[in-house]
Amino acid sequence: MITGGEFYKVMCAMAPLYFAMFVAYGSVKWWKIFTAEQCSGINRFVSVFAVPILSFHFISQNNPYKMDTMFIIADTLSKLMVFVLLSLWAVLFKSGGLDWLITLFSIATLPNTLVMGIPLLQAMYGDYTQNLMVQLVVLQCIIWYTLLLFLFELRAARLLIRTEFPGQAAGSIAKIQVDDDVISLDGMDALRTETETDINGRIRLRIRRSISSVPDSVLSSSLCLTPRASNLSNAEIFSVNTPNRFFNGGGSGTLQFYNGSNEIVFCNGDLGGFGFTRPGCGVSPRRLSGYASSDAYSLQPTPRASNFNELDLNGTGTPVWMKSPVAGRIFRHTSSPKMMWESGQRHVAKDTMNVPEKEISFRDALKMAPPSTAAGGDASMEEGAAGKDTAPVAAIGRQEMPSAAVMVRLILTVVGRKLSRNPNTYSSVLGLIWSLISFRWHIALPSIVALSIKIISDAGLGMAMFSLGLFMALQPKMIACGAKKATMGMLIRFISGPLFMAAASILVGLKGSRLHAAIVQAALPQGIVPFVFAREYGLHPDLLSTLVIFAAVAWEAGKPLVMEEVEVAPPQKHEVRIKILFTSLCHTDVYFWEAKGQTPLFPRIFGHEAGGIVESVGEGVTDLQPGDHVLPIFTGECGDCRHCHSEESNMCDLLRINTERGGMIHDGESRFSINGKPIYHFLGTSTFSEYTVVHSGQVAKINPEAPLDKVCIVSCGLSTGLGATLNVAKPKKGQSVAIFGLGAVGLAAAEGARIAGAGRVIGVDLNPKRFEEAKKFGVTEFVNPREHDKPVQQVIAEMTDGGVDRSVECTGSIQAMIQAFECVHDGWGVAVLVGVPSKDDAFKTHPMNLLNERTLKGTFFGNYKPKTDIPGVVEKYMNKELELEKFITHTVPFSEINKAFDYMLKGESIRCIITMGA
Ligand code: NAD
Ligand code: ZN
């Protein structure tokens, strides 16, 4: 057992390291000393200088002529044992797969020897263990990390080939050439392939960086895989990141088999007009291609451990929260990212009961393999361990791979390139060479050099821990991968790792403190390098990061970790994470909260009218950067599709409003979770959270001078109403306009009428309190339907000699929609619907009303294109052409968000701003 004195020695070694980590953690988390950019500068210093010099320092001090053979054999044996077992598992039981082989191997065998092991063991067992540890570090650097890189590149190459050559085509690849500037297949760079087929049908494949979007040869096939026939296999191929497992559908035979369930789930057909999803259901092929063409190839977003998989494991297969639906309002008041999820009590209980069928199909859709997997016929790129050796697509046949020789050559090439760019490789080799020289001829480095190295390597040790602390502080949540996987990882890391080491050491015959040292080092927290690789290749980085961190934290404080907060995962490809500063409540939130909208999805984070600051951006985001002031918007603009190219439409194929989607387009998954359980997104914005992740196409970058507590209302209600009048109803000067519903949207429509120079503006509302307020917005006359026995249409027709010229409906009531249409003048009248109807509403009017030359229109977001037009609306406010202050009647701190709901339900507020920081 460890005595008090020994304990003190251990503390002396460890405490300074954790002190460095703590300082880093605090300076980011609490004292806000470093920006994200500065942190990455520090990290870069650590990886370019500190760690390589640290490696050199230790390796060069290790006497290579006096290596402890037994110790090394034991270590190697234990790693080989794990590797062989995992490989057997991967080969024999298809469920294993390369992905988990890599992850589990990293977890079980690669502890943090350099940064933690050396000082710790030195303190526990004396100086000589430092030598032992250094020997392990040398081997780790030279052999094991290289093996790991090899496996990662192998995996990346297989993915690439599977995606590009589904089925048997890959078998005929005879040669693979990699352009010089391709350093890795890890997906950080966009790659594409070119192929040439010779007369014998053998294929020569060239892998290039895709810099230009124009293919240089006819045969080239861009890796931005739009669903089109491959010239090689006649199969339909898809990008690995073909978006949206939530509602894949459309066009291709491969997808057909879950189209059926989609129809049930997503096409509520009863309401074409409400159809946020098209009647044709789901995504049209064009929509897919619209996305894919702007989407460079990336293996980064490997379908990673889906949080949703965890649902499969609780017996009945019913998601936990489905069994006990979140009832009423639950407000989580926690320090870090806060959120609330809500549901109208009655409705959820009821609706959940009513839609079992939908739930089931919804879950099935989630479990579907992504198209590329289906097409590939091999499931290991999906969550291997989940045992999905599915891929039933017979049309294509088994996935073949090029011959082993071809693959090995390919991978050796890229691994070689990768190693050649890593400063650590050079410093390790230099360290090894120097140690061979210095211990052979007993020469020491000149003091001046030795001291220079020492100073950086000491700093390096501290800096490495410092950077670990920074990393921790930048995580939205400590346990990134969810409690279940974390526990599994911990068991492997801290129990099976040491067990294998113990078995191997005993086999080899290690005894005494060498045996102890071997076991203790095997039980250290996860090494950082495997985590860095995992992050680079996008393979379970959440799990590895957790082990790096969790272990460190548990060691430091020994306290259970708080898991109450909502984890907001980092932005993935084409996504940004936004720190929300102000949000406000719109009636649409209330509808869905009351579950009057479509299929209820709970728990869910509502909110879509907000202003904030970009905190971080995901891969491929070029038009936004941290620090930008932005408005997240419930409908988006991809910039690429026919709608985005059309001057008339703002209904982007990819990013148009979709109330059914609970995850992100990129992978269909949620970026929010509590204890690993996903929390659904709402409208892709979910702004009732201190941090949220939004597709970059749904983010409008605005003038940083604009006060976010005012312009946040531009992100929905204001623009919707304003645009409905200015862009859709388009009243001519002096014309009369009726506005139904005098909430924020209706009053913004009135503001539009004022700006357009309309003559009479008639406000219609059931709530007489609204009229006083509306005068400020230029509403000149009022009609309260409750005060008349005649239909409102008739009242208005009488007031206006046959009807108003324009009407804008902003209530969400189906009666008001019909009235708004029927009250416009025949011959030229135009009615515009803006309110969001209830699920089962149907618009009923006599066709004669249309034949008499009235026009009925509808609009989302006032026909504004969110990214193109909204900055201009903000400028209108800055130039004092628009008044926003008069819309804002209340302000509440985030902790009192429920008050905002009450104000809206009681009709007291126009807009209530919710201040996040408060
Ligand atoms: P709000 O609750 O503040 O205002 C609605 C007003 O309509 C209230 O004053 C209410 O008294 C009045 N009203 C309700 N039923 C009526 C009826 N039958 N006749 C006359 N008046 C009636 O809501 P808001 O935030 O201003 O939103 C208004 C509507 O616009 C909602 O349906 C909302 O979902 C919808 N909306 C649509 C879009 C879009 O892009 N199309 C965007 C945002 C909001
Ligand atoms: Zn678009």
TrEMBL record:
Q: What UniProt keywords are attached to this protein's entry?
A: Auxin signaling pathway, Cytoplasm, Membrane, Metal-binding, NAD, Oxidoreductase, Transmembrane, Transmembrane helix, Transport, Zinc
Q: Where is the Alcohol dehydrogenase-like N-terminal domain?
A: 573-703
Gene Ontology terms: cellular component: cytosol; endomembrane system; membrane
Question: Where found, per UniProt?
Answer: Cytoplasm; Endomembrane system
**Occurrences of domain Alcohol dehydrogenase-like C-terminal (ranges):** 744-875
InterPro entries per the UniProt record, alphabetical:
ADH-like_C (IPR013149), ADH-like_N (IPR013154), ADH_Zn_CS (IPR002328), Auxin_eff_plant (IPR014024), GroES-like_sf (IPR011032), Mem_transp_PIN-like (IPR004776), NAD(P)-bd_dom_sf (IPR036291)
- EC number(s) in its UniProt entry? 1.1.1.1
| Species whose genome carries this gene | Thlaspi arvense (Field penny-cress)
Q: Which SUPFAM superfamilies match?
A: GroES-like, NAD(P)-binding Rossmann-fold domains
Q: How does it assemble?
A: Homodimer.
Pfam families noted in UniProt: ADH_N, ADH_zinc_N, Mem_trans
Q: What is the name of the protein in this document?
A: alcohol dehydrogenase
